[in-house]
Amino acid sequence: MSPQSAPTDRTRLRRMSHKAAHDKATVHAILDAGPVAHVGYIVNGAPHVTPTLQWREGDRVFWHGSAASRFLRVIEGTQACLTVTLTDGLVLARSGFEHSISYRSVLLFGTVQIVSDPAEKEARLKAMMDQMFPGRWPQLRPMTTQDLKATTILTMEVDEASAKISAEMPDDPPEDRNWPIWAGIVPVITTLGPPQPAPDCVPGMALPVVTFGG
Ligand SMILES: Cc1cc2nc3c(=O)[nH]c(=O)nc-3n(C[C@H](O)[C@H](O)[C@H](O)COP(=O)(O)OP(=O)(O)OC[C@H]3O[C@@H](n4cnc5c(N)ncnc54)[C@H](O)[C@@H]3O)c2cc1C
What we know:
Layout: E1 20-21, H1 24-33, E2 36-43, E3 46-53, E4 55-57, E5 60-66, H2 70-74, E6 79-92, E7 100-115, H3 118-132, H4 145-149, E8 151-166, E9 184-187
Antiparallel strand pairs: 1-8, 2-3, 2-6, 4-5, 5-8, 6-7, 6-9, 7-8
Bound molecules: flavin-adenine dinucleotide.
Flavin-adenine dinucleotide is lined by residues 10-11, 13-15, 85, 87, 101, 103, 105-107, 162-164.
């Protein structure tokens, strides 16, 4: 990720600029808390946005998929925009006009490259597992050459990034504030449910200990 934290013309927020952040710590924290990303890119002149899982190592973001994926093939070497959004709350105001959502989001701009070295691929996949499913790697059926071959890993060399954080109470105009309806924020909390074993899960296995995002 670019060491600069001052925005350029591309990443300077014009709308609601007080919600902007460009420092690495903020951008990294949002990326780390939100494994689900959307990647925007151009195919044959037409815009596409594809959802995927992302993980971060240092200043780079990674995502992966089947070697047969068109998305992963056409995007190599191109400019892309990757976003992550965390939904933190519903903002209920006195008018529909002022209703909104509390969120943290990031936009990353950069060039996409394929990770082709098999040793690096394996290290990246281990890093993904360690981040998303901590503790499972040592227990897993070891990765095979075929697993590696069937997996494409992409990485984005991030040129620039911006974050936007919206965490404010409803901003009704003074003339609406006595309107007799509840106003405030209802937090949105993502939780994990009880593990549901696969029908063919070996009986008696210890339950997994997992987390999702941050
Ligand atoms: C869950 C969610 C719901 C939203 N709902 C609405 C809505 O209903 N209506 C609405 O107008 N906007 C909404 N937004 C805000 C929206 O993402 C844009 O910030 C806003 O529309 C202004 O767009 P713009 O192109 O004019 O921004 P500009 O300020 O002109 O954008 C300039 C640059 O600022 C940065 N930037 C802009 N927006 C974001 C962002 N969200 N995250 C990180 N960097 C950013 C980018 O680098 C961008 O290139 C929502 C955002 C989220 C995450």
